[in-house]
Amino acid sequence: MITVKYRGVLAELTGKLQEQIDAATVNDVMKYVKKTYSAAAYKEAKKLLIVINGDSILLHKGFKTPTSDGDTVSFLPVCGGG
Amino acid sequence: MRLPVYAMLDLTTGKVSRYPITKKYFKTYVGGKALGCRLLLDLTKPGIDPLAPEAVIIINTGPLNGTGAPSSSRYNMTFKNVLTGGIASSNCGGQFGVMMKKAGYDGIIITGASETPVTIEIIDGEITLKDASHLWGLDTEEAQEKFPHHYGKMVIGPAGENLVRYALAASGERVSGRCGTGAALGAKKIKAIVAYGTKEPHVHSRKKFDKFVSKWVSFVKGHPMTGESLPRYGSAGLVNKANATHALPTHNFKYGQSEHADAVSGETMAETALLRNSGCVSCPIRCERRVKVAGRDVKGPEYETAGFFGPNIDCGDLETVLKMNYLCDVLGVDTISFASTVAFAMELKEKGLADFGVEFGKTANLEEVLRKTVAREGIWSDMAEGTKRMAEKYGGKEFAINAKGLELASYEPRRSVGMGLGYAVSNRGGCHLNGGYLALMESVGVLLMDAQSPESKAQFTVFLQDALEAVSTVGCCLFSAQTFVPGIIYKLGPTHFITRLVGKIMIHAGPAITLMLKALPALRFNALILLPQAEAARLATGLPLFMGNFVKLGEISYNLERMYNIREGLTSADDALPDRLTKTPQDEKNPKTVVPLDKMIPKYYKVRGWNTEGVPTDKKLKSLGVIK
Ligand code: SF4
């Protein structure tokens, strides 16, 4: 089992801040979101920064990044500043 | 053509006079920081002490200030940098800039020094000096409460009075924090400058301007960054993003990722502490956080403050971050420089080099240390000097995280090497904004170029420095420039293949940027989606500020600031970073995780048209129309 965390608009759309699911890759998490929640939630999830155990998945294998028991995958809004 | 109205005020004699700005100066330097730097070069002799009576402070606005253009309430302070000895330019929102303009002045030039505390009052064209002895010792909140609500105010706190080198000036709850603005004013015994007036700021083509501004406001509100993300999370939304790419300074920049990041992030702040968002005058972005500290509704922290009072000192307590942010503002110190100095002091203690009573992960006495630093009490007076001077006294230069003496912002440059270049060459010292802010395209934004590659970083840095410099010069907040990245890219998100493809193309786009920089005079157009500030400034001034000329205005300003630094004795040796960042890989298994300055700086000088020593050539200055 892995923990999936939702923030901001995505948390509003899924109605959850976090949940535990079975997934072998980040792609599986995306499939889970698509299957379980509204099209709007999936659309929102796709545009967010996806982070595994604190690291951007772009530092690893993107959507193909494998997940293991106890991992946390978070969806974070893209922000700006200065 | 209306020329800017400037007054000169000699505090030693109390004399106030008009200072004429010629047509040539207006056409070349326009206003704000570019004109400010020109005047500082003209009006000061080389080598003076930044805190001496001969030092000059220029407080001015750009042509968009007060016109109703988005995010245009900013005033600028130009003076000799109290931390670096080079140029200082620090801008701020709040009401002061708008009110100074409405009172009839685009800028004031302050020379000399008063013997006793003074307030400068600028009311409907009249400038008078008032005794401020009764205000001396008050914090920035208390001091502002002494003036009528409708005045625009700018004040210093106890830190400025005590010449803490990184003291700030506050206008409302906004601050011009960097470079020692508060100390520069405090040295002249200026406690407050207040303004009030009813004049409408001049706009050359009012009808066209208003039409354009209304389009611009809609564009800002509809853009995912300025219309959604910044209002919802503020700049502190970057904490988790920087953490995700190992670009979040942790334990005095030893690491780039922290278990404490989420606890002090913009998301957590929005979920647990945010009362509402707010904003500066005439700003549709409204990025400001309102939070509760000790039962009071106050301004919340920016990204840098959250990172520096959080992971960089191994703290994961949001309450501490909120409280320290507030205390720094009211006592009058820059949160970046103070918190970075605290982290340095913590590492000095860890290495057994000095003991200022601070330790990583222990935050219970931070308020006490801040108060002692502000009061310059005992050894804490050394902390009031900043990391550069502390390292000269106690050692630890390799982990004193500053460039030229100004503490770096909260982006770990070993995971954002273009930002590292920007910090090193930035005219005012370790500043991300004056440095071109490439971190936004390397490690914390939506479009990500290869953060470890030096390729094309020099060209992007030059272009972004110049563009941001121009945006600042005309009077806009730099956040308003974040619409430069097309909204569609945010809609696709950072993981979409198109976004990643654009990032991959950008890393090879250096030569194209060089070509574009050479072709600037030919870019005689403006577009809402590129730099709307240019079109607004063109309509406000009547000057031919098309895209090319607008970026050139930034280039003029950048070169002038460099000329000032050179005149004051700074050299290419000062375009440097501490050894921790250039010699010690952040990830010991990945030798690429250092800032390869040696590869980027020669290219940067070349793209700038400077010689190998980093000095603007006569040919370059001539092409810019800048006199030495
Ligand atoms: S974006 Fe934020 S800092 Fe900038 S002018 Fe608007 S409210 Fe002020």
Question: Can you describe this structure?
Answer:
The complex is a heterodimer of chains A (82) and B (628). By secondary structure, chain A is α+β, with helices and mostly antiparallel strands. Chain A has a single domain, classed as Roll (Ubiquitin-like (UB roll)), CATH 3.10.20.30. In chain A, 32% of the residues lie in helices and 24% in strands. Chain A has a five-stranded mixed beta sheet with strand order 2-1-5-3-4. In chain A, helix 1 packs antiparallel against helix 3. The longest helix of chain A is centred in the middle third of the chain and has 11 residues. Chain A is globular, with a radius of gyration of 12 Å. With 628 residues, chain B is α+β, with helices and mostly antiparallel strands. In chain B, helix 1 packs across helix 2, helix 2 packs across helix 19 and helix 17 packs across helix 19. Chain B has three domains: 192 residues, Aldehyde Ferredoxin Oxidoreductase,  A, domain 1 (4-Layer Sandwich), CATH 3.60.9; 165 residues, Aldehyde Ferredoxin Oxidoreductase Protein, subunit A, domain 2, CATH 1.10.569.10; 174 residues, Aldehyde Ferredoxin Oxidoreductase Protein, subunit A, domain 3 (Orthogonal Bundle), CATH 1.10.599. In chain B, the strands form four sheets. A six-stranded mixed beta sheet of chain B has the order 2-1-6-3-4-5, sandwiched between helices. Helix content of chain B is 40%, strand content 13%. At the A-B interface, strand 3 and strand 4 of A face helix 8, helix 9, helix 10 and helix 20 of B. The site of iron/sulfur cluster has 11 residues of chain B, from loops.
Key features of this structure:
heterodimer, A: 82 residues, alpha+beta, Ubiquitin-like (UB roll), 3 helices, 5 strands, 32% helix, B: 628 residues, Aldehyde Ferredoxin Oxidoreductase,  A, domain 1, Aldehyde Ferredoxin Oxidoreductase Protein, subunit A, domain 2, Aldehyde Ferredoxin Oxidoreductase Protein, subunit A, domain 3, 3 domains, six-stranded mixed sheet, 40% helix, globular, binds iron/sulfur cluster
